[in-house]
Amino acid sequence: MKDQKANVYSLQETFSEPNSENIWKNEWVGKLFFSHGTKHSRGVCILINPIVQIQVDYSYSDNTGRIVLILISLNGQKLSLCNIYAPNDQANQLQFMQELTNCIIDKTELNSLIVGGD
């Protein structure tokens, strides 16, 4: 990803756990925001290129590895970045959508919201 020269990356199905976070941080060097799943499922992450100067105003991650949300200030502009990994199981989709809706309505700058995911 370092060769791609993008400023923001949204990863899904990271299969990350809290104990792997330091390894990722050492390899990436820039800012990382996780919602961990397990080493076999789920997990989302937002990576910010280390050359981008941002101020993080708020961050949220659910405890199921499906939602990570950050509110940042970039060059004086407020942005909300959300990365999601929606469940395939219909039984879990309604609860997920309710949590996502509440999170977005309560915490984001709706006029500058960018959502990525699967």
Q: Keyphrases for this structure?
A:
single chain, 118 residues, alpha+beta, Deoxyribonuclease I, Chain A, three-stranded antiparallel sheet, 7 strands, 22% helix
Q: What does this 3D model show about the protein?
A:
- This protein is α+β, with helices and mostly antiparallel strands and 118 residues long.
- The protein has a single domain, classed as Endonuclease/exonuclease/phosphatase (Deoxyribonuclease I, Chain A, 4-Layer Sandwich).
- The chain contains two helices and seven strands; from the N terminus they run E-H-E-E-E-E-E-H-E.
- It has helices at residues 21-28, 90-107, and strands at residues 8-12, 31-35, 44-48, 55-61, 67-74, 77-84, 113-117.
- The strands form two sheets. A four-stranded mixed sheet has the order 4-5-6-7, with helices on one face.
- Strand 6, helix 2 and strand 7 form a beta-alpha-beta unit.
